[in-house]
Batch of 2 targets.
Target 1
Amino acid sequence: MKFFAESLQVFKKVFIPLFALVVVSTNIDQYLNLYIENALQDPMGAQSQVYFFGFLSLLSSVIFPTLLVTMALFALNLQTGWTQSLGAFLKKYLNQLYIETLRSWGKTLLWSLCFVIPGIIKYIQYLMVPVIVTSSTRYDEGKEDALKASAQIVRHNWGKILGIIFVFQILIPMILASVFNSYRLIWNTPVQSLALSALDTYLILFSTHLLFTIFRNEVRKHDAHV
């Protein structure tokens, strides 16, 4: 019950700005993908445009997910002692979070170039990086590495982490993409698009809260043994 009560508080505090960002990011992503598909089908060829919009799509896939998770973590940290504004939270953590995210992507890519399975394992191990960067006192004090700390927490919670990945990054996205993908563009189907964005917002908050709870439990275990 405590978890759902916290989820409700988080939902109230950050839903509107997070929802607005989800709407923007979703439609930008859909527009870029649509443009790339049309360019690829152009019989005259549009290779330079494909590269350009492909780069923008890649940039979007880095900027928006990290920003969305950071905003969700802001609301969660309000429950555990953070008292300043969203702007102050982003100013303190967002740049560092992008750095650590790119570090984790780089290491994951290097492992993937050798073998696929190790790359997937690395991706899973670094899932907790945003939580570490924004919520770990030891990381804030420079006493731990975000990637190593994330891997350690994941090792202690493999079952829970795999469950979160399967439900929130595989199962639900597959269902939504296969059934509702044609309703994503807000200028084509505004009501359906906004409804799907609201659902996406809730899923981001809920899944991030689950990861945050795992992190807090690990911190409590660590403190109990110190």
Note: The CA atoms of residues 5 and 152 lie 28 Å apart.
Target 2
Amino acid sequence: MRLLLLSCACLVACTKPEPVQDPLDYLRVGVDPRHEADAIIADLRAHGFEIGRRIDEPRYVTFDAFHGADSTVRVVTSRGPALSIQVPDVRWPERLWVGLAPGYRADFDGDGQKDVLVSIRERDRACLAWAQVTADGFVSEVFRPREAWGESPCVIEIDAERPRVLLEVSVPDAPALQARVRIPVTTRGRQWVLDDSPEADAHWDREIEARERALEQAAASGDSAATRRLRAELEWLGQLRKAEEPVLEPAEDGEEAR
């Protein structure tokens, strides 16, 4: 009997205890972008929206939707709805429509994931917004214009390979309405700067020469409004072309500059 009890004690002592399940094993941080996007789309459809394009990327889902005069673009990440652009919006009354931009989709930081390109239509132009989604689910702008370049900025074209954008701005404090110029902007280090490459020089020259010819015609015909507008645009183009960009400081992490 003593031998039997001893054997049982040894058996119990040698048995490996079951590990305690860590409650964190059941904790799931964030949401599945696809499932969350499906739920948002279902809700929009229930409110009369028609879904347009939908793009599924490893880190996010983006889509646009329309209902009468209402339009929206959504970006859903592991954090849930990370970006929502609505039209109409009282903050930007000039916006008439928003949707995902067609065509080539860039990968600005080279992480293998395509960026989000949005088209925003105004009364007399269509502007592009360029955003990227980070690994932790945040949405950030790739391009943000400087206030010193002009007012009411609008990205007209994007060349993601260079990268370069063609930016249209209104001339600050112009004496004439609709005084606008288009300027080339590119990257230098980690900053967006006015493009002064030989190819961009040709663009600056065309912008200036076209306005000089138009100014002669406007002056000859006595069109005072056009004359004021063209003079304001020429003055602003000259000021921007001669503007000094800020000095770029070397970065400590090996990048060219900040």
Note: Residues 1-13, 21-28, 246-258 have pLDDT under 50 and may be disordered.
